[in-house]
Amino acid sequence: MEGARRPHVEPLVEPLDAADPRFAGAGEEPPPLRRRELVRSRGPDPSPFDPRARILRVALPAVFFAGAAAVVAVFFAGLDPGSGRQVVGREDAVRAAVIGRPRRVCYEGAQPCAWLTVVGDRLVAFNTNGPLPQEYGRQGIGWCPSSGGFGANATGSRFDAAGNVVRGPAPRGLDRFTVLRDDGGMLRIDFFSLTAGLQAEQVSTVVPPAGPHCPTIPFDRDADLRL
Hints:
This protein is of the alpha+beta class. 16% of the residues lie in helices and 23% in strands. Among the domains are: 47-80; 85-202, Rieske [2Fe-2S] iron-sulphur domain (Rieske Iron-sulfur Protein, 3-layer Sandwich), CATH 2.102.10.
């Protein structure tokens, strides 16, 4: 009924469950209070509207994209082989420099390289790498000053002054790079244009040696062309 007073109820002083942890058993002490250690507050995190936070949000993506662009640029620059054409010099100066002996010209100062010489009346650029894999790089083709021919110490292959096989295991003569001359008289070697040498069995005549053959091709300290 409305307005009726509720009977007074005494507060609970005994647990309904003897295992209730809120009540200590008879003769038991209440659990000790755990000590709390207070630490100094560092304050709230930086506000997203803080100028430093805004700079960081802009700088991190910018650094990432700049690094990615640099990697892509280096990758594609490394894949670019270039034109393959090396400027040698004016034709009259080049002929004067190689008339007595062949001179070495390298593409951009590195590999590949060519022996630039005169065969008959033509300027010819022989590949310094021989026909065999063992005749590449430092074990490549050298010049014999006594005979005027070429050879590879690694295999024993010998070639005459025109690049034809004289003896040894080489299956063909020295390969040739294309020599170009522009209207101004400047010579260029096209290191991307290579013509294979004449097969050994097709050689009918060879250029006679100017002197004795070199048992070992000596190290050439004055090989490079300098104009």
